[in-house]
Design a protein that fits this description.
Layout: E1 23-25, E2 31-35, E3 45-46, E4 53-54, E5 59-62, E6 71-72, E7 77-86, E8 92-100, H1 123-132, H2 145-148, E9 159-163, H3 173-180, H4 182-196, E10 201-206, H5 210-220, E11 226-231, H6 240-248, E12 263-267, H7 268-280, E13 286-292, E14 300-305, H8 310-316, E15 324-329, E16 336-337, E17 351-356, H9 357-360, H10 373-377, H11 384-392, H12 396-401, H13 412-416, H14 423-442
Parallel strand pairs: 1-14, 9-10, 9-12, 10-11, 13-17
Antiparallel strand pairs: 2-8, 3-5, 4-7, 5-6, 7-8, 13-14, 15-16, 15-17
Length: 443
């Protein structure tokens, strides 16, 4: 029997329209906009100025704090300006604008197709190279990878879990990466195992990707300690705590880190980026992005330079259909509507979804009928309707006491609510408020 997590969960329509579509390299744009805040933690600090010339792979911003990440130029050309730009969240953030001139790469980057398996670096040296390359979690959370690989004192990793679940409907970038770059992914896994000093790694893949399961299982026979584990299709299995529960049958306590269960979780795309960083000296300057939608002419998977305007990706996929109602950054469950198609691709951009006007319209909200469906599907065991009410009436003590900060914002509650109540919207608002209160209290 296939494993899955034990609390809550739903199974929305998968709509993997771009499954099987090979990765296409998108042309380099005329200008890129590279935000300094495209990871969890402090924004990076620019180390270039207007008029400077950069190459593809040049370091242009250094970490602005302990939890932060390097940022590199994804193109070669001239720094046009350092100014504010609207990001995927709709807020203005500081960004570096680079006018493209050719495509000259830093000499240290190995651009060949040669597969490099051997690595004589120590675990610390691997982590240092990952940090230097600006690698962050590519599943969407964008937590700086070097921090995850350095557990707090007193904690020891026992297993590496690779998240290849891709449970979000529509998205297929991880799936196609496994099919086309499976060997590189596995080498990346061995590097991560060495970095945290563990002998066992499990790559969890939902059972709706049988080709990826078969392909990686065949390849993994040559890599000791790596197991491919098929999982039951269940959203949101890609959540860190849910995946740990599914794979090793341990539940992470409220407020605790995954390392408390002996696990370090990394996305499969992050594993590939680690391979390129450690074995090829290539910083994180591009990633695979799914561009999809039911009315889109050509749903596809694009290898895209960081900072490329999203409208360039949409044009490559056939352009915006006439009846488009919303453009979503990410998938339909956890993604957010974009204020403009001009916002740039960032390290955390896994997908772009174009919804029709019919799909975009919310149904009228009705009174809660106390059916408890939202409680039954919550993968964190929370009471979403209670947390919505606490937020609506600004009862922050109640919200905190009922673990609002544990919400992973998966949207299962809103999806299943027969009264069409915007549960997640309110909980997201309340969660931010309560986290601010907690930070102020600790300070």
């Amino acid at each position: 029997m296939l494993r899955t997590f034990r609390i809550g969960g739903i199974h929305p329509p998968e709509n993997k329209l771009s499954a099987g579509k090979k990765i296409v390299r998108l042309a380099v744009p005329k200008q890129v906009i590279i935000p300094l805040s495209q990871h969890i933690g402090a924004p990076a600090q620019a180390i270039v100025k207007k008029g400077d010339m950069v190459k593809t792979g040049t370091l242009i911003a250094k970490p602005g704090g302990f939890v932060s990440a390097n940022i590199h130029s994804s193109v070669s050309g001239k720094i046009n300006k350092i100014d504010s730009a609207i990001d995927a969240s709709g807020y203005k953030r500081t960004a570096i604008f680079i006018d493209v001139d050719g495509d000259e790469w830093e000499d240290a980057i190995d651009r060949s197709d040669n597969l490099i398996k051997d690595c004589k670096l120590s675990g610390k040296e691997i982590i240092d190279k990952i940090a230097a390359a600006g690698i962050v979690g590519l599943g969407g959370a964008t937590f700086p990878t070097q921090i995850k690989l350095t557990p707090p004192p007193g904690n020891k990793a026992e297993i590496l879990i690779i998240n290849a679940v891709e449970c979000e409907p529509y998205l297929t970038s991880d799936h196609i990466l496994m099919m086309e770059k499976g060997e590189e992914v596995l080498i990346g896994v061995t590097l991560l195992m060495k970095a945290i000093d563990v002998k066992r790694a499990v790559i969890g893949i939902e059972n709706n990707k049988p080709d990826a399961i078969k392909h990686l299982t065949n390849l993994a026979s040559a890599y000791p300690g790596i197991e491919i584990m098929p999982l039951k299709v269940q959203y949101p299995q890609g959540g860190e705590k849910q995946l740990i529960d599914a794979v090793i049958r341990k539940q992470v306590k409220s407020g605790a880190l995954p390392i408390s269960a002996g696990a370090v979780v990394q996305n499969v795309g992050t594993s590939f980026a680690v391979y390129e960083a450690v074995q090829k000296n290539k910083p994180l300057i591009e990633r695979v992005v799914t561009v999809t939608g039911k009315k889109l002419t050509n749903p596809t998977n694009l290898l895209t330079r960081i900072g490329t305007p999203i409208n360039a990706l949409i044009e490559e996929a056939g352009g915006v259909p006439e009846n488009t109602g919303k453009i979503i950054g990410g998938g339909p469950m956890m993604g957010k509507a974009l204020v403009s198609p001009d916002v740039p691709v960032t390290k955390g951009s896994s997908g772009i979804l174009l919804l029709t006007k019919e799909e975009s319209v919310r149904k009228p909200m009705q009174n809660c009928i106390r059916c408890a469906k939202c409680v039954n599907v919550c993968p964190m065991g929370l009471n979403p309707t209670l947390l919505m009410n606490a937020t609506e009436f600004t009862n922050w003590d109640m919200a905190e006491a009922n673990y609002i900060v544990d919400c992973i914002e998966c949207g299962s509650c809103s999806y299943t609510c027969p009264a069409n109540r915007p549960l997640l919207d309110y909980i997201r608002l309340g969660k931010g408020k309560v986290m601010g209160i907690i930070r102020a209290r600790k300070a």
